[in-house]
Every structure is written in C-alpha cells, then in structure tokens.
UniProtKB/TrEMBL annotation, chain A:
Protein name (Swiss-Prot/TrEMBL): Glutathione import ATP-binding protein GsiA
Originating species: Tianweitania populi
Keyword Nucleotide-binding (UniProt): yes
GO CC terms: plasma membrane
Keyword vocabulary terms for this entry: ATP-binding, Cell inner membrane, Cell membrane, Hydrolase, Membrane, Nucleotide-binding, Repeat, Translocase, Transport
Membrane topology: Peripheral membrane protein
TrEMBL record, chain B:
Coiled coil: none
Gene Ontology CC: plasma membrane
InterPro entries linked: BPD_transp_1_N, MetI-like, MetI-like_sf
Keywords: Cell membrane, Membrane, Transmembrane, Transmembrane helix, Transport
UniProt record similarity statement: Belongs to the binding-protein-dependent transport system permease family.
Family matches, as SUPFAM superfamilies: MetI-like (SSF161098)
Species of origin: Tianweitania populi
Principal location listed in the UniProt entry: membrane
Protein name, UniProt field: Peptide ABC transporter permease
Length: 614, 307
C-alpha cells in the first residue's frame, strides 16, 4: 500500500524459499518461494485448491495440526534480531512468535471467535500471554484496540459474546486480536470474503490504516482480483500448488505473463466494464486446456428479453414478515420485516437481478415465489394468474415451470444418490416421461447440455468439483422444462474462472430456451454483465429499479451509489477510490407495532424507478 | 427465568404423579404383604390376615390408598414402614445422603478420568494412545457392574485386605463402590469426550487459538473443552438416571446403607410405603438433576443464555 520502490532496499522480514507441503502422498504446495518486506503487502492469489491457504498455515506451522508436513524448504523470519527458520523451529519458539511477531486473520469471522468466551477475554488472553500484562492493564489495552478498529462503545463490547455481533464487527474484533501485540507480519487469509461489500470496504481501509501506522508486512491471501488491485504492492499467483507468476501489482494486471494469470484475469467480471452498452453481453472465455489457454465463444450482445411480451411473473406489493422474539406467554414482540410492498415483474427471456446485502430480503422473496414461504400480504401472479387462486393442477405446473438453484451445490444434491437419479427425480415426480429408457436418454442429454459427459449420470456428487456440481444442479433445474429459474447466489461459492463458465452457460440457455431468470446476488460486477434489469433491495424494500444501464451508469438512490462505490475494481490504477464507509448493515428486525415507512417510487426515466426517501 | 422454573415445577409434579401411580399399582401386583408379615407365626387364619390388612389400611380400594398416599406427600409424610412402623421419612433421611455421596463420588471419578483420557484419545486419533484407550473403554463397557464389584472385593478386601468389603465407614469404604460405578460411567464418557473433542478440534476458533501462540494445554482445556460441554452435560443428565438404577445393585454388593438397599429390602418385604417413598425421592432427584442440566447449559454456552 506504500510506495514499493521505497521499500525495495530494506531486507525482507519473511522469506519463504523452496517450500513444499504434503498431505499424505499429495503435494499441495510445490517449491514455493516469495518474500515480504516491512510495510509491504504481498497478495497470494489463486483458486480453491491452489495451495494458498496451506501456505499461510505452513508459515504459522499450524499445518501440522491438520496432518500436513513440510517436506522441503525454509521459511526465514528476521525482525532485526537474528534469523529464525520457522520451518525447523521448535514448538516453544513458534509459540513465542505466533500471535506476537506473526499474527493471522482468518476467512470466516463467524467461526473464528470462540462462541463461549467474551470478546474481551479472547483479546486479553493474547496480551497477558505475550505482553505480560495484568488483567486490568490487558482490559484497558483491549478496549483501546477495539476503538482502533473503529468499534464504538469499546468498553461494553469487551463483555459481549461473538454471537451478539455482526460478521463485520467480529472481523474487526479478529483484527484487534491479531494486532494486539503489534506483530511484524500479518497473514490475512481471505479476511473479507464472507462479508458484504460495504463492510469489506471498511475492513480493507482499517487494515490499510493500521499497516501504515505499525509498518507491518502483510501477506494477503485472496481469490478476489478486485481486492488485490485495491491493496497489494506485489502479487504472487499460485496454480496447482506452484507459483506461476510474481510481480508488482500494476504489471500483473497490465501485462500478465503466465497463461493461467491471463485466464484468471480474463474471467474476472469488472464493474464498469459494460459502460455504454444497453444489453448484457456474452463474452468469449479463456479456459485452461492442460497447461495452455484456449479461447472459446465470441463476444456478442445478449438481447433475449422481449419487453413487449406480457410478464411471465408479476409480484405485487409482496410483504413477508416472520415472528422472532416471543414472551414466555407466546406473545410476539419482534418481527423480521423481510420484504415490504415489493413489486416487480419478469418477462420471458429476461434476467432480473435482485441485489442487496445480508438482511435485505432478497432470498426471502425468491423463496416466497417458489412457495417455500407464505407471503404476509400481496400477490404473486404467474402467467397472469394469482398463484394463491390456482387449482391443484395449476400449482403442479407452477412447481414444474419455476425452478430453483441454490448457492451451495453440494448441500442441494443428495450425497447418497447418483446425480442421474437426482436429475431424473423431477421428471418422474411430474410424470413428464415414464419410460425408463427415455428418462435415461433425457438425463444424458441434459448432462451434455450443461457441459458434462453422459457417463457422469452414474456417479455421486462427491466425485465432482464445485463447478461441476453447480452444472448438475442446473441440469436438474432444466429437467422439467422450466420457464423461470430463480438462482439464489448460484455463483457465489465458485471460483472466478468456473463462475465465468457458468455465467456463459446461463446466458446460452437463456438464448436457446427464452428462459427468464430471477438472479439473486450480492455481486454487482456479475449482475452488470448478465442482467437486463436490476432491482436494488435495502431492508426489504426496493430502493431503485431500472435497466442495467440505468442502475450502473446513472445510479440515483444514495444506497445504490454506496453499494457500487464499495465494490473493489480489478484495476490497480483506480485504487484509493474506496470511500470511508461507516456503520453496520442495519437489521430488518423491528419491535411489533413499529412499522417501517413504505418508500414511494418516482419514475425518473422510462423504466427507472427510485425511492423518494422519507 | 421465573417462567421457565414454573414450567419445570409443573412438569415435575406431573412426572411424580405418573411414576407413583405406576409404582403403587405395580407393587400391589407382587403379592400380599399380610402373608409376608405373618410368615413364621405358626398357623394363620384368613381372619388373622384380614385383620393385618385392615391394620395396614390395605382393605380400602386402590384409589383411596393412593389418594391417601398423595395427601401425605403434601406434608412430606410418606407413611410408616409395614415392618416395625418406623416413619418412611426417617428411613429415607438416613439412606439418601449415603446414596447421594456415592453417586457424586462415582460421577467425580468418571469425570476426572474420562476428560483427560478422551482428550488424549482425540488428539492422538488413530495412533497407539487412542487405540489403547478405545480398547480399555470397550472392556469397561463390557463389564457388568456387579461382577466388577465382586472382583474388586476379591482383590482388595479378601486377598490384599487393604479395603473394607462392605458398609460405610471412613473414606476407604467409598473407594470400591465409587470406582465400580465410576469405571462403567468412564467407559462411555471417554468415547463421548473423544467424539465431541474431535468435532470441536475441527473448528476454526481452535486454529485461531493456536495462531495466538497459546499452549496446547490452554487450547485444549480452555478453548476446546468448554465447547464440548453441551453434549457432555446432556449425557451426564441422562446418565444420572442409569446411575441411580446401577446403584441399587452396587449398594447390595457392598452392603451400602443407601436408597438402593432400602428399595431392595422394601421389594422383598412388600413394604409398600417404603418403596413408594424411595421411588418418589428418586424420581424427584432425576427431575432436579435435569433441571440443573438445563441451567448449566446457559452457564457454559452464552448462546443458550440469551434465548
């Protein structure tokens, strides 16, 4: 984050040389070398299975607790008091360094803090251990650390338990804990991946400030090229356990050398890349074919939406609330206002994106349309007919024509059934085909359609990668010829290169079958690429809705702007534009009797609606 | 909290009602106490037996006897023993402390042994310490408690003459009965601790604790163990019922003057009031222990406390 050239003459504080790590017979990290200087941020990027997290655990020598072994190389740590080789250091020496000289932040703030101890207890523990503080001193210092990571009311925060905090607050507690002893090296393993974008922007700016203040060396592990562009001085690209490229951040982005880096960068959706285009766009893909990249498909506009057709699905004034707090006599005290007077429609061939942060109600709306959740009020019309008035046969048809794809493809496939069985199940349930041979043939066609092999039908879900499993879920959704697919964060768990392939598959299927998508996502860059229209949700209400170009080029509601400004862009030249965002994502839980103000919408351009704030 | 306690109190009353009704009915199927009492008294006529029954109040209909017993409960009056006429409350007052002492000593033995062994087994998963602990646990599970009790008496009292074979005098007499019960509980608890620990050690906060530079002892006994407490406490609550059942047998072997011995004798003598009294106390004990378990959940896990 600081000027790299100023740092280049200082000697590295941490240098990893020729490091190999194995789990059993599998070599997960293969002769990796990189180094980091004080004040410098080195990003290690790569996709799942590239060995980047194992690298971070190896530096801490925690990989052995997971049955990993360091099979070669050295990890030299030199904080100006002589060099230690961490690869051969004893456990006692490592314990002195861990949390003290070298600290670590992990990906999942929800699971990184021990649920049964207070925040204060967990921070003080480190201070008492490494800085020999008394309990009272440690408590005062912990409060100071919490205010350093911009948590208000730090004193009271000390006595709270992790479950009482939001994800962003927990990650700030983690940072406070990691920085308690002013470490010389901070290893951050995907520290913002599980957070909403506005919270991610906060955390990144806190980290940058503290790094400047403390002069720490930071090893930042991530798969998100936008974050890399935002924070890194140098980048190490890992692929299948090896370093394939290393360089200054600007060079990596401007002039990637290794084919893998090129593919990776080409797959990253860049916010703002679509400016000036009215329609979503299908882009040619670069995929790795063994060791060489191969380009497939071509760039072209994606004009599948028929705006003159009558809506396939219309949602009118949909309100969904659920009761949460109850008194001992069963009286409801609090309700989640998941959706309040939400209205939109989707036409055949159209992709409508519902975007928003956690608690915005986007998933609840999807679940209500699918019939998994009863609406509190409002109507859902399918093909012009209210869903509530449908006969049994019509409901069955509805179930067939609206299909759902979830975020976690593994959790949504039965692990004990072959994927062929899972894909065939809707066909049998709806009686679309009865002949076993015909069903088998149909399953094989579907597998080919989503880019898999017919022979895959007899395999089980665990035999596939995450991307392949999501393809299987798509095949299952397609099996009953749906007209509308609700994709709830369907791309969020996938690596970017896989994500790009699935986006392409979604768009190809849309063109071929005039499918309509309700695309629920928090990822603005993906939405910009593939949606025809966008609805921005905030606390259960639509604050802005319009065409893709309207939302991304002339965002009008303050929340839409805030959301867009928080997205890191994969262009190092545009760094430093992240605004300083304060506050938490607000909660949709309200006391009974306290009704939210229903926002009124103004049409500021044809089809572009903006909530007029009260 | 007040609402919770009221709910649990009502539940307890219901449990005691059901248990006593079943016991009072079932014990009357075992035979006539008048016959037992008149044994060895030479020739007994039917009129004699009827007189004994009237004296004990057994000539009244079952529901009258039962209601009478329930009414007594309100004033903590369990009636008098058919044999000797000692108030049942007095008998229980003498036996209950002995049983409680033995039960808690057994639990203590089991906790002290099973937690370190379970943790060792989990951290050395698949290696020789784990294998040995698991085999020992299986052996412990396979022992019937009375057999183990007899073996201990044979070795420590008869052969070595280190410990008294029976009765309750001094701390030495606690060792064998507590060990007998404790070993059997330990065998299951070790497995429980191991499973819960294996699960907890997978959690990210354990890695985080290690990344802070904490020693393995603190990582295991502070960060991990507290998170295993919920399944452990749940199981200890369930185990307590089984423990009281097991104690009846073990108390007999060691001639321990507790509720088990009292209940055993009462069944043999068809001494209805004593047996009913013991059962009421035992079922109340189980209700109270489970209440303590529920309160303990909140103490160890703040997430439950806020619900």
């Amino acid at each position: 984050m600081t000027e790299t050239n100023l740092m280049s003459d200082t000697s590295p504080i941490l240098s990893v040389n020729d490091l190999s790590v194995a789990f059993g017979a599998a070599r997960v990290v293969d002769r990796l070398s990189f180094s980091v200087r004080p004040g410098e941020t080195v990003a290690i990027v790569g996709e799942s299975g590239s060995g980047k997290s194992v690298t971070s655990l190896s530096v801490m020598r925690l990989v052995e607790h997971g049955n990993g072994r360091l099979t070669s190389g050295s990890i030299l740590f030199d904080a100006g008091e002589g060099t230690t080789d961490l690869a051969t250091a004893g456990e006692a020496r490592m314990r002195k360094l861990r949390g003290n000289e070298i600290a670590m932040i992990f990906q999942e703030p929800m699971t990184s803090l021990n649920p049964v101890f207070t925040v204060g207890n967990q921070i003080c523990e480190t201070l008492i251990l490494h800085r020999n503080m008394s309990r009272a001193e440690a408590r005062a210092e912990a409060a100071r650390l919490l205010s350093l990571v911009r948590l208000s009311d730090a004193e009271r925060m000390l006595d709270r338990y992790p479950h009482q905090l939001s994800g962003g607050m927990r990650q700030r507690v983690m940072i406070a804990m990691a920085l308690a002893c002013q470490p010389k090296v901070l290893i951050a393993d995907e520290p913002t991946t599980a957070l909403d974008v506005t919270i991610q922007a906060q955390i990144l700016s806190i980290l940058a400030d503290l790094q400047r203040e403390l002069g720490m060396a930071v090893v930042f592990i991530t798969h998100d090229m936008g974050v890399v562009a935002e924070i890194a001085d140098r980048v190490v690209v890992m692929w299948r356990g090896r370093k394939v490229e290393e360089g200054a951040v600007a060079d990596i982005f401007a002039n990637p050398q290794h084919p893998y880096t090129q593919t990776l960068l080409s797959a990253v959706p860049k916010l703002g890349a679509m400016t000036g285009r009215a329609l979503p766009r299908r882009l040619a893909l670069t995929v790795m074919d063994g060791e060489t990249p191969r380009r497939i498909g071509e760039d072209r506009d994606h004009g599948t939406a028929d705006i003159t057709a009558k809506p396939l699905l219309a949602v009118e004034d949909l309100t969904v609330r659920f009761d949460v707090g109850k008194t001992m006599f069963g009286r409801v005290t609090h309700r989640v206002h998941a959706a309040e007077k939400v209205s939109f429609d989707i036409r055949p061939g159209e992709t409508l994106a519902l975007v928003g942060e956690s608690g915005s109600g986007k998933s609840t709306i999807g679940r209500t349309i699918q019939g998994l959740q009863a609406p509190t009020s409002g109507r859902i019309l399918y093909d012009g007919k209210p869903v509530a008035d449908m006969t049994g046969d019509e409901t069955l048809r509805l179930r067939r024509e609206i299909q759902y794809i979830f975020q976690d493809p593994f959790a949504s496939l039965d692990p004990r059934k072959t994927v062929g069985f899972s894909i065939a199940e809707p066909i049998r349930t709806h009686g679309l085909l009865t002949d076993n041979k015909a069903i088998r043939q149909r399953v094989e066609e579907l597998l080919v359609k989503v880019g898999l092999e017919p022979s895959h039908a007899s395999r089980y879900p665990h035999q596939f990668s995450g991307g392949q499993r999501q393809r299987i879920c798509i095949a299952r959704a397609l099996s009953c010829d749906p007209k509308l697919i609700i994709a709830d964060e369907a791309l969020s768990a996938l690596d970017v290169s896989v994500q790009a392939q699935i986006i392409e598959l979604f768009m190809a299927l849309q063109e071929e079958r005039k499918l309509a998508y309700l695309f629920i996502s928090h990822d603005m860059a993906v939405v910009e690429r593939m949606a025809h229209r966008v609805a921005v949700l905030y606390l259960g209400q639509i604050v802005e809705m319009g065409s893709r170009a309207q939302i991304f080029e002339t965002p009008t509601h303050p929340y839409t702007r805030r959301l867009l400004s928080a997205v890191p862009v994969a262009e190092p030249g545009r760094r430093g534009r992240l605004p300083l965002l304060e506050g938490e994502v607000p909660s949709p839980v309200r006391a009974v009797g306290s009704e939210p103000t229903i926002l009124k919408h103004r049409e500021i351009a044809p089809g572009h609606f903006v909530a007029a704030d009260a | 909290m007040a609402g919770f306690l009221i709910k649990r109190f009502l539940q307890a009353i219901f449990v005691v009602l059901c248990v006593t009704l079943l016991v009072a009915y079932a014990i009357r199927l075992t035979g006539d106490p008048a016959l037992m009492l008149s044994q060895g008294a030479g020739s007994v006529t039917e009129a004699d037996l009827a007189r004994i029954r009237t004296g004990l109040g057994l000539d009244r209909p079952f529901y009258v006897q039962y209601l009478d017993f329930l009414l007594g409960l309100f004033t903590l009056d369990f009636g008098r023993s058919f044999l000797g006429g000692t108030p049942v409350r007095e008998l229980i007052g003498r036996a209950l402390p002995a049983t409680l002492a033995l039960a808690f000593a057994s639990l203590l033995v089991s906790i002290v042994i099973s937690i370190p062994l379970g943790i060792a087994s989990a951290t050395k998963r698949g290696r020789w310490p784990d294998q040995i602990i698991r085999v020992l646990s299986l052996i412990g599970l396979s022992f019937p408690n009375f057999w183990l009790a007899i073996m201990l008496v044979l070795v420590f009292s008869i052969t070595l003459q280190w410990l008294p074979p029976s009765g309750m005098e001094g701390w030495q007499s606690f060792l064998m009965p507590a060990l007998t019960m404790g070993i059997i509980l330990t065998a299951t608890n070790v497995r429980l601790v191991r499973t819960a620990m294996l699960e907890t050690l997978q959690q990210q906060y354990v890695t985080v604790a290690r990344a802070k530079g904490l020693s393995e002892t603190i990582v295991l006994y502070k960060h991990a163990l507290r998170n295993c407490a919920i399944p452990l406490i749940t199981y200890l609550g369930i185990q307590f019922g089984g423990l009281l059942g097991g104690i009846v047998v073990v108390e007999r072997v060691f001639n321990w003057p507790g509720l088990g011995t009292l209940a055993f004798q009462a069944v043999a003598d068809r001494d209805y009031p004593v047996l009913q009294g013991v059962i009421v106390v035992l079922s109340l004990l189980i209700v109270v222990v489970n209440l303590i378990v529920d309160i303990a959940y909140g103490l160890v896990d703040p997430r439950i406390r806020t619900e």
